[in-house]
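Supplementary Methods S3. Input chains for the assembly prediction are listed below.
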Amino acid sequence: MPKQQRAPKWYPTEGPATGLTKTIEKKPQGVAKLRKSITPGTVLILLAGRFKGKRVVFLKQLESGLLLVTGPFKINGVPLRRVNQAYVIATSTKVDIAGIDTTGISDKPDEKTKRHFFSRVVAEQKEEGEGEFVSTEAKKSGLTEERKAMQVKVDESVIAAVEKTPMMKDYLKSRFSLEKGQFPHLMKF
Amino acid sequence: MVALVGIDATEMADVKRAPKVATKPPRLYVKGSFVTFRRSNANQRNHCAILQIEGVNSKEDVEFYLGKRVAYIYKAKRARGKHSRIQKDNKQTSRFRVIWGKIQRAHGNNGLVRSAFRNNLPPRALGGSVRIMLYPSRI
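Predicted structure tokens for the full assembly:
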């Protein structure tokens, strides 16, 4: 009697690939779309963070999608700073910053150094002396000369534009705050 | 009227400068209160908190606040390290604590609002104040 072909003892748990399942390639997350109300020169109100309530001038949207703003520093103490759109109210007030050069400021990390204009710079702590006489130098602020120079350069043109409009300087100096009886859903920014 | 007789240069400098008045921190939130948990007569759904926002009295007014973050702030006995992003060595401590939430949708026609918090609000918060922040902003 011929030996019958036996059924295989082991079966694979998954069948052959049928091609019905899709491998969806993750799309690179695009840059946040800038709100229509935010154009270069718009005065923005910062809603959170160290400078909450301050009115600042919007310069441009950086590569990461964050907004580049400046006080200007001399007017209200806000330096060249990045801010997320969601934490900002755009007012209808605009400053004419047509000729301002902000090309040196970028968010995109340099391929070699992996750093960009806003990368945090941590000064190394220097320890002098030994043993009990160790004294550590205070951590220097992360401000590079490049940033200071760029601040002065950009603010020069912004302040010139600001001074053309009466009361704009005082407006940027003042802080936004909700008072009694003021409700944002009834306010026109 | 300050008597200028007999004051030397250093004192003059102090006299001239007006005392620095501490400016009030700006209020960048809308006041609200935690009215109730979402519920029917006999069943309560604690994951949904119904809030009343000051000045909001109709369903149309609620549209501005959709998605806005809400904070329930309370004090505790034990001081805890504050979340400090940059200066990790400078540990500020605080007895204030927050439960964060979000406004999800309107509740009814009269301006009440449904919200969900990361952790459900404790029952002692009923009737208590809540802060509705102005972010994430859509204006």
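Residues 2 and 15 of chain B are 8 Å apart (CA to CA). Chain B has a mean pLDDT of 86.
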